[in-house]
């Protein structure tokens, strides 16, 4: 007779356990959904910061930050997006708010210094870089340190920082190009030429380094084209740069020949070179 009671108790216990299990499952589901939302949001933030349209990214981070005003990752995303959108002056206020809130990192201060440099606020950028401990050794930090030293014409420090920065990245083409341009402005044409060539070994498609290389060679009266990778259109543009350099240095006949070559080489009509050539020959071009 006691069997039905036992079965009933067992069933009651099973129902109770099921209810508890459902409660635990519901809580776990909610936590899982929350985790998924965070992951989805994180993925979306990453997309916005890399392949997304910069202005769309600004809108996304601005709207999300209004709903979560205390989240440093959203402030960071907004500041980076503003820089990508060419709105560095606006980014400085966001970076400043973040680094002064106690939630910022050394890398955030580097980002702040970068935005200040882009806004032509060099003393403020230098002040921010000075607040970063020397143990924070990153490519971006030393790249900015080199630029600040350049702005102060402290060439010894600039060279040291450029060298360190180049050694901290697997893609040093950009910083080598900057270093070469620094030497170009100091009239160290041979030194700059070597750096531009080195930059092109890492990124053969970096046109600014190609053009700077031509300027460095032209300044040394090297009027032959270097052996570098270039398209037909690029060759025409580089020959044009070399022609103008020759004219400015008084080598007018060489410059004229180079301008003529630029016009003939370009796959389409090269208006700028044609105008320069006409001006050199004293012709009026409408």
TrEMBL record:
This is Tetratricopeptide repeat protein. It comes from Gemmobacter fulvus. SUPFAM superfamilies: TPR-like. It comes from the Bacteria.
């Amino acid at each position: 007779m006691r069997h039905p009671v036992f079965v009933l108790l067992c069933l009651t216990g099973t129902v109770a356990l099921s209810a508890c299990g459902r409660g635990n499952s519901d809580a776990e589901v909610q936590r899982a959904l929350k985790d998924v939302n965070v992951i989805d949001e994180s993925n979306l933030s990453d997309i916005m910061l890399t392949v997304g349209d910069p202005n769309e990214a600004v809108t996304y981070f601005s709207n999300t930050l209004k709903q979560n005003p205390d989240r440093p990752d959203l402030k960071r995303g907004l500041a980076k997006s503003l820089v990508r959108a060419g709105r560095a002056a606006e980014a400085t206020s966001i970076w400043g708010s973040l680094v002064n809130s106690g939630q910022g990192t050394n890398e955030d201060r580097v980002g702040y210094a970068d935005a200040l440099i882009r806004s032509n606020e060099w003393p403020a950028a230098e002040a921010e870089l000075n607040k970063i401990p020397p143990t924070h050794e990153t490519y971006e930090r030393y790249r900015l340190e080199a630029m600040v030293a350049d702005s102060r014409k402290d060439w010894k420090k600039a060279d040291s920082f450029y060298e360190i920065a180049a050694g901290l990245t697997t893609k040093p083409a950009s910083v080598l190009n900057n270093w070469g341009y620094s030497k170009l402005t100091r009239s160290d044409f041979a030194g700059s030429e070597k750096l531009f060539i080195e930059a092109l070994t890492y990124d053969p498609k970096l046109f600014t380094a190609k053009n700077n290389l031509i300027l460095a060679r032209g300044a040394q009266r090297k009027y032959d084209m270097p052996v570098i990778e270039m398209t037909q259109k690029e060759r025409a543009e580089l020959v044009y740069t070399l022609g103008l350099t020759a004219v400015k240095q008084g080598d007018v006949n060489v410059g004229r020949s180079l301008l003529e070559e630029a016009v003939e080489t370009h796959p389409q009509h090269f208006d700028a070179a044609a105008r320069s050539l006409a001006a050199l020959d004293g012709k009026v071009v409408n």
